[in-house]
Write a structure and sequence with these properties.
By secondary structure, the protein is an alpha/beta fold. It has eight helices and five strands, in the order βαβααβααβααβα.
Length: about 210
């Protein structure tokens, strides 16, 4: 049986993660790989229910610690019920966001300690990390244009936060990638989608070689 691989796409709002997740899955399937696409928060019925709580614009929302706990709970269910079984079956899992979004959003954006978020991940998901994390980096003005086209009626609760919050998130993602270069591939996500996809496939080449 071929070894399953776990690929996460990360980045701020409007970076193109959903589009690139789809293109990547299509490319891997053309190489006869068994691919599962999923997202966070979400991926299982329980995690999707938590997603609705987190992103709803109704009510006053959650403070950063409650957010971190809810994300960790959703991720735990996602890992146990979908990600680990898929990897054990030899499938490739492509996930739109994973742990590093919690580290960047609730940590960098919300001010929580990275160590506390990692502790929650150790408890909830036994510390599972992707084989490769693709960090899609995009200029703010391009991200804003993409978001305006995607969400003409406004963003969800987290996406709609102030510019300064998202600037902190972007800076946190960059720090994480700099600190863990063996796990991260930083992808220029400006420009046309096919060019971005090509950069992703180049970054993925070392993982693909043993499967051929």
């Amino acid at each position: 049986m071929k070894t399953g691989r776990f690929i996460a796409l990360e980045g701020g709002e409007g970076a193109g993660k959903s589009t690139q997740s789809r293109l990547l899955a299509e490319a891997l399937r053309r190489q006869d790989l068994d691919v599962v696409t999923t997202r966070e928060p979400g991926g299982t019925p329980g995690a999707e229910a938590i997603r609705a709580l987190l992103l709803s614009t109704e009510g006053e929302g959650w403070h950063p610690r409650a957010e971190a706990l809810l994300f960790a709970a959703a991720r735990s269910d996602h890992v146990e019920r979908l990600i680990r079984p898929a990897l054990a079956a030899g499938q490739w899992v492509i996930c739109d966001r994973f742990l590093d979004s919690s580290r960047a959003y609730q940590g960098g954006g919300g001010g929580l300690e990275d160590a506390d978020i990692l502790t929650l991940h150790g408890i909830g998901s036994q510390g599972l990390l992707p084989d490769l994390t693709l960090l899609l980096e995009v200029a703010p003005e391009i991200a804003a244009a993409r978001l305006a086209a995607r969400d003409p009626d406004g963003s969800d609760r987290i996406g709609g936060r102030e510019t300064s919050y998202h600037a902190r998130v972007t800076a946190a993602f960059a720090r994480l990638a700099e600190a863990e270069p063996a796990r991260f591939a930083r992808i220029d996500s400006n420009g046309e989608r096919d060019a971005i996809h090509g950069r992703i496939m180049d970054a993925l080449a070392p993982l693909l070689e043993p499967t051929r």
